[in-house]
Design goal:
- This protein is α+β, with helices and mostly antiparallel strands.
- It has 3 domains: 74 residues, Arc Repressor Mutant, subunit A, CATH 1.10.10; 85 residues, YebC, transcriptional regulation domain (Alpha-Beta Plaits), CATH 3.30.70.980; 73 residues, Alpha-Beta Plaits (2-Layer Sandwich).
- It has 8 helices and 10 strands.
- Strands 3-1-2-9 form a 4-stranded antiparallel beta sheet.
- Strand 1 and strand 2 form a beta hairpin.
- Helix 2 packs antiparallel against helix 3 and helix 2 packs across helix 4.
Length: 244
């Protein structure tokens, strides 16, 4: 199940993400800048890529003032920052499929660093297209309900009426899936109904999963992810591992 792995991965990394909030904000700001420059300007109603970046920023609790300042900075003629979006594919322990998405001002540097991160713990950088065929790009919205305060049927109906493609319920959370094109409108509709999100962004969702049971495999996988996420140029790391 896509949602099962997604939620388990959030649980496993949430503490580390909280400890690195400043780094997360910096990475999201970079996404916003690129979205403004390569999209349709600073109006999220006309720039779906920017709207998706803003939704991600809000789910990470990035203050609205920070978001506005970042958009204004991207629109400013004096800002000379220039980033290129690059994607790498490879394998972790036991053939786990991995996709690494980066925004960088130095393609050669980030390519070398990604390769080193894979190699250090038994992974392997692959060729373009080696694993991406086994992932689907989807909007993913996570709503927490561990205290049971939300009515399952009401959330299900609200999500469908908002335009969601699929809803899964697992371990006290609702996992709502959308098309990339419909992601922003679904987020807006659910926010308008008063829902808050544990996570909301466009992701690479695996079509199938590899379960890691061996402690050394799990440790190696976690180390590869940690190295990737610690890199300032790397925005997101997607994989099909379930670590138990």
């Amino acid at each position: 199940m896509a949602g099962h792995s997604k939620w388990k991965n959030i649980q496993r990394t949430k503490g580390a993400q909280d400890a690195k909030r400043a780094k997360v904000f910096t990475k999201i700001a970079r996404e916003i800048i690129v979205a403004v420059r390569e999209g349709a300007g600073g109006d999220p109603a006309k720039n779906t890529r920017l709207a998706a970046a803003i939704a991600k920023a809000k789910s990470a609790n990035m203050p609205n003032d920070n978001i506005k300042r970042t958009i204004d900075k991207a629109l400013g003629s004096g800002n000379s920052e220039s980033y290129e979006q690059v994607t790498y594919e490879g394998y972790g322990p036991r053939g786990v499929a991995m996709i690494v998405e980066a925004m960088t001002d130095n393609r050669n540097r980030i390519a070398a660093e990604v390769r080193l991160n894979f190699d250090k713990y038994g992974g392997k950088l692959g060729a373009t297209g080696c694993v991406s065929w086994s992932f689907d790009r989807k909007g993913v919205i996570i709503i927490e309900n561990e205290d049971g305060r939300l009515d399952e049927e009401a959330v299900f109906n609200d999500a469908l009426e908002a335009g969601a493609d699929d809803i899964e319920i697992d371990d006290g959370v609702f996992e709502i899936y959308t098309s990339p094109e419909g992601f922003s409108s679904v987020c807006g509709a659910l926010e308008g109904l008063g829902y808050t999100f544990l996570s909301s962004q466009i992701e690479m969702v695996p079509q199938s999963y590899v379960t890691l049971n061996d402690a050394e495999d799990i440790k190696s996988m976690e180390k590869i992810i940690e190295l990737m996420e610690d890199n300032d140029d790397i925005q997101d790391v997607w994989h099909n591992a379930v670590m138990e």
